[in-house]
Structures are given as structure tokens and as C-alpha cells.
Amino acid sequence: MLCATLIQPEMRMQPLIWLLKTLSASNPHRLPSTVARDDEHLLVAAAKRGDTHAFEELVSRYEAKIFRLTMNITRNREDAEDAMQDAFLKSYAHLKNFQGDSRFYTWLVRIAANEALMRLRKRRPNQFSLDEPVEGEEDLMPRELEDWGPSPEQRFAQTEMHGILSEVIDNLEPDFRVVFVLRDVEELSTEETAKALGISIPAVKSRLLRARLKLRQRLDRYFRRGATN
Amino acid sequence: MNCKGVIREISDYIDGELEPPMKQELERHLQDCEDCKMVVDQTRLTVEIFCDSKPVELPTDVRARLHDALHRKLHERGN
Predict the structure, then answer these.
(1) Is the separation of the CB atoms in A148 and B42 below 8 Å?
(2) Which of A23, A87, A133, A145 sits most deeply, having the most CB atoms within 10 A of its CB?
(3) Tens digit of pLDDT for each residue in A57-77?
(4) Is the pTM value of this prediction over 0.95?
(5) Domain count, chain B
(6) Domain that holds residue B72
(7) ipTM attached to this prediction
(8) Which of B13, B42, B44 is best to mutate for the A interface (most A CBs within 10 A)?
(9) Region for A224 from its dihedrals, namely left if φ exceeds 0, alpha if ψ lies in -120 to 50, beta otherwise
(10) Long-range contacts: A33-38, Cβ < 8 Å, 24+?
(11) Closest-CA distance of chain A to residue B34, Å
């Protein structure tokens, strides 16, 4: 018997999506990230061939992460939404140019970061520049150190912790924030971050160092032993 | 290495990107300096907390507008 006769109509319509759904059907939970990474290139290849459902699957997979990224950069919901939407539309329009020398997600993050940066620059034309050198080292020395106690991250409920992180990152200078978000939240490499932002590797490193130290200092207010929440 | 040197290298140290001699020098300092050890531990935890933070669920209205826009674009290209 020919295998084609066993193929269900939905399999003929969207074979790749059907296969992915079948593979995950036995597990009601989300696919582990390693699996998600493994099948990403299949979805991208299908989307390049014109399978719109494959592209929609990529969007569904990454929409929350891309919105977090654009929110983290712009700190403005309207700009974040526009940047996310344009990032997905542009990635679809330019999909044929994606060579596959990085993960699709990394390529998408680069597009989304640029869309978000464009809006940030428009909103704060005199307050944001990645070209200016960062200040000297003296202000980096931490003062009044205090123990955070065991597992400060477990002392707060998830929503409470989300509020704290949102507040401290909101107050970080945009040029430090952008680098921190790409490196430590989206986990791009130093090289990928430099490429995405069009700045040098030493510039990424110096901004990242300052961003991390400043965030530590601001979290200290919440995490130090005996702090009133 | 003094405290200022530790602060300067703390990022590369956390990322495991320090050359072995520099790393040894920094770790020797940490053995004798409680303050620097605390800063290193707290900075590492800061990175971990942000790195582990889950993206919040996309608001329903934002998601609907995104998929509407996508649908229009994909349909336009499909024809």
C-alpha cells in the first residue's frame, strides 16, 4: 500500500506543522528549549519555501520573548508593540536573505533590537547614544556592602520579583540597558551583541560591566538581609 | 591585584573569559577580601536572576494585533 493513501488531509496540507504537533502531542508541556532549537531550522526552511504556517509557528514560539526584548529596550508599550510587529514583518520580508549562519532567533533578535533602538532614539534624541565613551572607573567601586542572605530570589513571589526587575532595569541608562538585555537576558554573545548594535567588542564589554554593577547596586536595596520589602 | 582590579575584571571573570594567570590572581585576592567576594557573588546572582526571568505572557490585545498584521502580510504575499 502506498504511504500516500495513509496520509491524513491535514498532513498533506501542512506536513511539517503536523509532524511537530504529533511529536509533541504525547507531552502536553512545552517542548524543551533544546528540542525547540533543533527543529527551528526545519521551520525556517519550510517558511522560506512559502509555508506560511511554518512562519506563524516561529512567530508564536518567539512573540513573548521578542516583546520582552522590545519592552526592555524602549520601556514604552506602544513603541515595544510597533517594534515587535515590524520586526516579524521585516523578518518575513527578508527571510530569503537569512543564510543560516546563526540561529534564526539570533537573527530575529538583531532585527527587533534595531527596530526598538530606532524608536528609542526617536523618543530620546539627546539622551541616547552608543557612540559616546563611557565614564571612568571610580564610580564603579561598590560602597556599603551588605550580605544578601541565602537565596534572595526565593524570598519574593514571581510577580513581585518581576516588578523589582522591571523597576531596576527601567532606571538603567539606555545605552547600558540595551547591551545588558542583549547579552544577559537574550544571551547573545559579545560578538553578536557588538554586531547587532554596530559598536566595538570593548564598547560592549565596558557597558556590560557597568550595567551589571549598577543593577547589583540597585537590587541591593531589595535583597540585602533585613530589607523591608 | 587590588579591589579596583577585581571590579575592572569582574564581568570577564563571571563569564569565564579571564586568562588563567589573571583568573588565579583574582581568586587569590578573593580568598583574602570578603568585600570583593560579596560583590562577585552578588553580581553573578544579578546576572542569573535576569537571565532566568521568564518573559511575561503576551497581552491578548497585543497578540491579536500582531497576528492580524501578519495574516494580512502573509495573505498579500501568498496571492
Answers:
(1) yes
(2) A87
(3) 999 999 999 999 999 899 899
(4) no
(5) 1
(6) 3-78
(7) 0.86
(8) B42
(9) beta
(10) A36/A61, A37/A103
(11) 10
